[in-house]
Amino acid sequence: MNLEKVVFGFFIVLAATMNFGFFIGDIDNPVHHDVFELFAAIVVNLIATVLKFGDRTQIGAIHLATSLVADLQLIAAAIYWAYSVHVSGIGMTPGVTASVVSLAAGAMLANVVSVVILIAETVMMRR
Questions:
Q1: Rounded distance between C-alpha atoms, residue 54 and residue 107, angstroms
Q2: Which of 38, 76, 82, 103 is surrounded by the fewest CB atoms within 10 Å?
Q3: Angle at 14 between CA 7 and CA 115, to 5 degrees
Q4: Taking Cα atoms as reference points, which of 5, 20, 33, 17 lies closest to residue 97?
Q5: What is the separation of C-alpha 47 from the centre of its chain, rounded to a whole number of angstroms?
Q6: What is the rounded CA–CA span in Å between residue 54 and residue 33?
Q7: Can you spell out the DSSP letters for 72-84?
């Protein structure tokens, strides 16, 4: 068993599941979406992105692209959350919460694409 591939797969799947954990719940209810879970999803996605550097194949490029999309959307969600709560002072209204969760949903879709590519790549491997 290749430990590098295990770690790579672990972080790809963990990124998707952490993102899903933040996403699940009523879209406009801030109680269902914890800021620390969003932070953890960002950190795990960034780790997964770093692990995807160095693969010079076409599939590796798509892995990296999906990870960058997820990072961008999660960071945008965190910035919007922070701006709404700490700068503008409007707080986590249902509209703000829905926007943050929608951005996280886009990141989750990118993570699902990455997991599907990982599974397809694994199935196509020959021994």
A1: 22
A2: 82
A3: 85
A4: 33
A5: 11
A6: 34
A7: HHHHHHHHHHHII
